[in-house]
């Protein structure tokens, strides 16, 4: 199982992930709100991200309202943020372009 990152390692990883930050009020999770041009762009992003997540066997918590997609990443098995969350966050940034 992936190891939970320390607060220091999490901060370090976040510095290389534009738009991602610690989620307040959660023990350890990272989040980003993506805003697209319209619903079509938002759902296209979700579709591509879902396929990547399934391939990684690592799944997002997310919520879509029209062109906004709010994403929270945490590794439930590890009770916090692991390298898997960082990898999925990077992939999502790449997909969003
Ligand atoms: N996704 C996330 N975000 N955290 C997990 O701990 C997790 C997951 N565990 N996807 C996986 C699936 C696990 O439940 C299966 C059995 O591999």
Describe the protein:
This protein is α+β, with helices and mostly antiparallel strands. It has a single domain, classed as 2-Layer Sandwich (Gyrase A, domain 2), CATH 3.30.1360. Helix content is 41%, strand content 20%. The chain is built from three helices and four strands, in the order H-E-E-H-E-E-H. The chain has a four-stranded antiparallel beta sheet, covered by helices on one side. The model has no long low-confidence stretch (mean pLDDT 97). Ligand H2B is lined by residues 57-59, 75-77.
Task: Write a brief structural summary.
This protein is α+β, with helices and mostly antiparallel strands and 97 residues long.
CATH class label: Alpha Beta
Distance between the termini: 30 Å
- Order of helices and strands, N to C? HEEHEEH
Residues in β-strands, percent: 15-25%
What fold name stands as the CATH topology? Gyrase A, domain 2
Task: List its salient traits.
single chain, 97 residues, alpha+beta, Gyrase A, domain 2, four-stranded antiparallel sheet, binds ligand H2B
């Amino acid at each position: 199982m992936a190891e939970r990152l320390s607060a220091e390692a999490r901060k370090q990883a976040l510095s290389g992930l534009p738009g991602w930050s610690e989620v307040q009020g959660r023990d350890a999770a990272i989040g980003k709100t993506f805003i697209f041009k319209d619903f079509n762009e938002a759902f296209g992003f979700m579709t591509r991200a879902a396929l990547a997540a399934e391939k990684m066997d690592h799944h997002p918590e997310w919520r879509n309202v029209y062109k906004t997609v709010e994403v929270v990443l945490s590794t439930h098995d590890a009770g916090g943020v692991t390298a898997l969350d960082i990898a999925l966050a990077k992939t999502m940034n790449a997909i969003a372009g």
